[in-house]
Amino acid sequence: MEITPELVEEFKQRMHISHSSEDDNLKRLLSFSYEDIKAKCGVFEIGKNKRGKELIFERTRYVYNDALEYFDDNFLSQLTSFGIELALIGGEENEAV
Predict the structure, then answer these.
(1) What does the angle CA 16 – CA 20 – CA 22 come to, to the nearest 5 degrees?
(2) Parts of the chain with a pLDDT under 70
(3) Residues 33, 46: contact at Cβ < 8 Å?
């Protein structure tokens, strides 16, 4: 999944970032966050999964503010429930085949 310019803009609006000088860095941070959440919880599409996108934005916010070491502890329950949700969805899709 590639991080789109629209996703970068959505993150910038959320963070109240009005300049574009950091767009490349934000895209990179969002990409790292997606890979991390995907590794912890499972594969999902950012554009189709609001919970996944929320976790990506939150992790990226922590990275942007140099506080990444607090993310996993602060979002443990959300990460766990999201991983379970993705596992159940994947199981249901496999049963339908």
Answers:
(1) 85
(2) 1, 91-97
(3) no
Q: Which tokens sit at 93?
A: 């899709």
For 26, the 3-state DSSP assignment is helix
Alpha carbon distances (Å) from 12 to 23, 31, 42, 63, 71: 9, 14, 25, 14, 19
What pLDDT score was predicted for residue 90? 75
Q: How far apart are CA 92 and CA 97, in angstroms?
A: 9
Q: How far is CA 16 from CA 38, 63, 86, in A?
A: 26, 16, 31
What secondary structure letter does DSSP report for 66?
T
What's the DSSP call for residue 65?
T
Q: What is the pTM of this model?
A: 0.90
Residue 77 contacts residue 68 (beta carbons within 8 Å): no
